[in-house]
Amino acid sequence: MKTDLNAYGLTERIAQLAATEPTLTLARVTEQHRETYQVISATGPVAAELGGKFRHATKVATDLPTVGDWVLTTVSPDDQLAVIQQVLPRQSVLERAAVGKTGAGQLIAANVDTIFICMSLNANFNGHRLERYLTMAWDSGAVPVVVLTKADLCADVAEKLAALADVTLGVDVITCSATTGAGVADLRAYVTGNQTVSFIGSSGVGKSTLINSLLGRETLVTREIRTDDKGRHTTTARELLRLPSGGVVIDTPGMRELQVQGGDLTKAFADITALVGQCKFRNCTHQTEPGCAVQAAIAAGDLNAERLASYRKLELEMSYSDMSARERENAKIQRFFGGKKEMKQARNHMQQIRRR
């Protein structure tokens, strides 16, 4: 039985790219498990592995396939194994810094049209974390949508929406509850035709439960958690699933730690970006300079000082992300002391104080 790849998000652009390699078979990565993959082609699902030539030519981890990628493969005569020979150019790619490996990238999903950033309205609620997710999402090339879950457990939804007004500037916000079904229809409106959506967020915010609601069946394992949102991961591997109403969804494991690999601060912090352009000096640091529009907005109550602090923190984090360990260390020394000479002077001064 043939598989209609249009139902798995095939676009005209991908079809044209695949047509240039008529001897290879087009497929989409639906699952990733360490060294192995599952792909779907016109002949159906099949296990897949990396071709030796492709593996040898790969220079960085982000060149390897991830869930959502369109790949060109060769298939064994018995259709039991596909060998990935090439990853086609990505329309979008969701990436974060690998935990414990600052500067290294870790792919989350590729070729996504809409990213649902899930955050629950009880103990998981955190505006600064949402700023990080939005920064990462805007940089991916996909469109972010904020999904506030567990509305049935929140007594002050309007107050929390107001608290996120600056953070979610220019972004659609959906308030929903998998328990009552509220908001699920709003989610479904984004997944039509050959659209691909992905759910991201911390562990225990209800991503798998919402995806089950879209699927209309209990496909993903869910687990009851305490009301403080402290729960174990229910999703351990990335997985692409076809929805009965059309479109596909990518489920991802919950993220305990979110290190930003790259990001678009101009969109995630559009309010601050607009103010920066109004500062008197082009190299304004937004601290004590005269004519600083950012500080003027804070003084007038139009901008929250905490939001500026988040902006600076992410800006600094991203400036470090492409540096080597030695470059990051030198940058921190320069930032805190002004240079290595000044750092040694400060160290000697502290030693003299201790001897007294």
From TrEMBL:
Its subcellular locations are: Cytoplasm
Membrane-spanning regions, if any? none
Ordered alphabetically, the record's keywords are: Cytoplasm, GTP-binding, Hydrolase, Metal-binding, Nucleotide-binding, Ribosome biogenesis, RNA-binding, rRNA-binding, Zinc
Matching SUPFAM superfamilies: P-loop containing nucleoside triphosphate hydrolases
A Pfam family hit: RsgA_GTPase
Hydrolase found in the keyword field: yes
Instruction: Describe how the cofactor binds.
Output: Binds 1 zinc ion per subunit.
Query: Which InterPro entries does this chain map to?
Result: G_CP_dom, P-loop_NTPase, Ribosome_biogen_GTPase_RsgA, RsgA_GTPase_dom
Instruction: Decide whether keyword Cytoplasm is in the record.
Output: yes
Q: Where does Zn(2+) bind?
A: C279, C284, H286, C292
PROSITE patterns from the UniProt entry: ENGC_GTPASE (PS50936), G_CP (PS51721)
Enzyme Commission number(s):
3.6.1.-
Q: Which PANTHER family match?
A: SMALL RIBOSOMAL SUBUNIT BIOGENESIS GTPASE RSGA (PTHR32120)
Give the protein family.
Belongs to the TRAFAC class YlqF/YawG GTPase family. RsgA subfamily.
> What function does this protein fulfil?
One of several proteins that assist in the late maturation steps of the functional core of the 30S ribosomal subunit. Helps release RbfA from mature subunits. May play a role in the assembly of ribosomal proteins into the subunit. Circularly permuted GTPase that catalyzes slow GTP hydrolysis, GTPase activity is stimulated by the 30S ribosomal subunit.
Q: Subunit info?
A: Monomer. Associates with 30S ribosomal subunit, binds 16S rRNA.
Q: What is this protein called?
A: Small ribosomal subunit biogenesis GTPase RsgA
State the species of origin. Answer: Levilactobacillus lanxiensis
Gene symbol here is rsgA
